[in-house]
Design brief:
alpha/beta; six-stranded parallel β-sheet; six-stranded mixed β-sheet; 8 helices; disordered N terminus
């Protein structure tokens, strides 16, 4: 049965005798649509980490865009899942391969984007495209101007092909979310995993790769039992993560999530606009 959380639930702040693995989606869970993080959520994240829990992010964002949120939260987890599970970053500031933030690439999955891009293109007369490489560099076509385009270059469509990537993003301004979902269903994208975002855009990952596959690797490396796993999210790219954690751990869905995501929740909390994540984190021992 799905449990509905609210801010009147009892808050436990006893020191954690046994840490939980807490994996948080970013957009729509930790961060608002404009990318901001509320003080209430920031403080709840920091408090959970201070109590000894392993609080990390599991997001579709690139590593560069993810670290912005880590900095806003003020946490430095041992692992971070990016690109919908295609990349795992590990904190190792002593490594000669560590970046400016003290992280190294621990695991990466790539795929050749040629087939999926050539399947999609005829269906979207005004489609815009972006591909991301393991080192964080991106290439994009004309019109992708609302995305973070640091460390990126604009190219012609054909220049997106031929090199393995960790992620493909497709945007269609002419469709709303429902229309875009229908178009995607008609495409027959069987060779890749994909998730449709808040509006008419699609995140494409390698087949068999999602947030849950990356978190399974992280959980095993940290040695945290399944019974002490909590995941929280709101998007279709969180469904596999919810199903993975729900039966033995805690799978928390934000209140504004679409019905398909609410349907796989173990618990439902308030929407991101009401800082629904905060009481969830405060409920941890």
């Amino acid at each position: 049965m799905t449990e509905v959380l609210n801010e009147t639930d009892v808050v436990s702040r006893e020191p954690a005798a046994s840490p939980w693995l807490v994996a948080l989606d970013v957009d729509g869970t930790v961060a608002h649509e404009d990318g901001s993080v509320s003080p209430a959520v920031r403080d709840a994240v920091r408090a959970a980490a201070a109590r000894g829990h392993e609080v990390m992010l599991a997001t579709g964002r690139s590593w560069g865009a993810t670290h912005i949120i880590l900095s806003a939260l003020g946490i430095t987890p041992r692992y971070v899942v990016c690109a919908n599970g295609a990349m795992i970053m590990r904190r190792d500031p002593e490594s000669p391969e560590a970046d400016a933030h003290g992280y190294v690439i621990d695991h990466v999955e790539t795929f050749l984007p040629d087939d999926v891009l050539t399947i999609i293109r005829p269906h979207l007369s005004d489609g815009r495209y972006l591909v991301e490489y393991p080192e964080g560099f991106r290439r994009y076509t004309e019109g992708m101007y609302e995305w973070d385009l640091n460390n990126a270059e604009q190219v012609e469509f054909e220049e997106l092909l031929g090199t393995p990537v960790i992620r493909v993003v497709v945007v269609s301004p002419e469709h709303d979310e429902a229309e875009f979902s229908q178009v995607v269903a008609e495409m027959g994208l069987h060779q890749v995993a994909y998730a449709i975002g808040w509006t008419a855009w699609m995140d494409i990952a390698p087949l068999g790769v999602n947030k849950s596959t990356a978190l399974a690797v992280v959980r095993e490396r940290l040695g945290i039992p399944f019974e002490r796993v909590l995941v929280a999210g709101d998007g279709r790219n969180d469904i596999e993560m919810m199903e993975w954690a729900r039966d033995r751990g805690r799978a928390v869905v934000m209140g504004q999530a679409p019905e398909s995501v609410l349907a796989v929740a173990g618990e439902i909390t308030g929407p991101v606009s009401a800082d629904g994540l905060a009481p969830v984190l405060d409920s941890l021992p």
